[in-house]
Design goal:
With about 325 residues, this protein is mainly alpha-helical. The protein has 13 helices and five strands. The strands form two sheets. Strands 1-2-3 form a three-stranded parallel beta sheet. Strands 4-5 form a two-stranded parallel ribbon. Helix 7 crosses helix 8 and helix 10 crosses helix 11.
């Protein structure tokens, strides 16, 4: 069985971009792949955080994984920091990553371009840690949204570099990016990606938003004056984004979604999108409320930790020997 791995960084509440671009695919693939899904909690501290705040996001993220349908009996679900080997392999890979490669990473370049100062070394080397998360388990595929493609490409380069230098060590993984919904845009500014770190929360639908609030955000989403529901991201970014959200949740193609709404006025179209979003949130939140105060979260992480640790320690042992740093 082919192996898959992916993770989400809980720096804020998870949103429908995370769900559509990543989480729903983890759930979809868990029966057909040996699925590893983790919470990328070490990645959260690459930028300064309030410990109390991120702890709440962390707990919510695990509960949301389960509420969205991940199942500990079908997937290995774990916390990145529970498997100490991640940080260790991250350092080894950082030692094999060129400075120029990290300089070219979009996330880093964007922050620098905006004049960010005092970025941490951890933030700079973050892509090497992400490569470690993936290569540790010899994953064949990495289901992610569009914005993570560059990181998976670096991971491939690192795997190939290490294999050329030391012999066959790592499986070279492929990114798996879905056709519909790989980049959900901000509702208020559809030229920007929907993001956990949004300044105003009007453009972002969080999985834990009340259905009423979520519907309101959809109804006030930015559109245009063309008065036609068409998938045309260049000229109708807002409408195309809403169409994408609808198609992804209904699991239909963009063409099929478009056909459903010919002749619709924007107000009625938005109502239809709001309806499917509300239905999705109600289902997820119903399960979240059942799960959040139970032992299932601890049980899931415990079982996941044991399974992941076993693979990770074997991998690191082999690697340390190959590198000549173990007696
Ligand atoms: P993160 O936490 O930013 O995002 C988690 C997943 O959600 C996807 N995503 C989106 N998809 C569609 N539209 C959006 N607006 C949107 N925003 C986010 C992301 O592409 C991602 O798949 N570095 C990673 C976490 C990570 C990881 C890994 C992922 C750490 N190690 C190893 C895969 C494998 C991150 O910050 O994702």
């Amino acid at each position: 069985m082919k192996k898959m791995i992916s993770g989400i960084k809980p720096t804020g509440e998870l949103h429908i971009g995370n769900y559509i671009g990543a989480l729903r695919n983890f759930v979809k693939y868990q029966d057909d792949y040996d699925m590893y899904v983790f919470i990328a909690n070490l990645h959260t501290i690459t930028v300064p955080q309030d410990p109390i705040e991120i702890n709440k996001y962390l707990k919510d993220a695990i509960a949301l994984y389960l509420a969205c349908g991940l199942d500990k009996d079908r997937s290995t679900i774990f916390l990145q920091s529970d498997v100490l080997e991640h940080a260790n392999l991250g350092f080894i890979l950082a030692c094999h990553t060129y400075e120029g490669e990290l300089d070219r990473m979009t996330q880093y370049k964007d922050k620098k371009a905006k004049g960010a100062e005092g970025l941490s070394a951890g933030f700079y080397t973050y892509p090497s840690l992400m490569a470690a998360d993936i290569l540790m388990y010899d994953a064949d595929f990495v289901p992610v949204g569009d914005d993570q493609k560059q990181h998976v490409e670096l991971t491939r380069d690192l795997a190939q570099r290490m294999n050329n230098r030391y012999g066959d060590l790592f499986t070279v993984p492929e990114p798996l990016i879905s056709e519909v919904g790989a980049r959900i845009m901000d509702l208020q500014d559809p030229s920007r990606k929907m993001s956990k770190s949004d300044q105003s929360d009007k453009g972002c639908i969080y999985l834990l938003d009340s259905p009423k609030k979520a519907a309101k955000k959809i109804m006030s989403a930015q559109t245009d004056s063309l008065d036609q529901v068409k998938y045309d991201p260049e000229n109708q970014a807002g409408i195309s984004n809403l169409l994408t959200i609808y198609a992804a949740i209904k699991n239909i193609s963009l063409k099929e979604a478009e056909a459903l709404f010919t002749d619709y006025r924007y107000g009625d179209f938005k109502k239809a999108v709001a309806e499917v979003v509300v239905e999705l949130l109600e289902t997820i939140q119903g399960r979240y409320n059942e799960i959040i105060e139970t032992d299932i979260i601890a049980e899931t992480l415990n079982e996941g930790k044991i399974k992941a640790q076993k693979l990770a320690s074997a991998k690191l042992n082999k690697l340390n020997k190959t590198l000549g740093i173990q007696i």
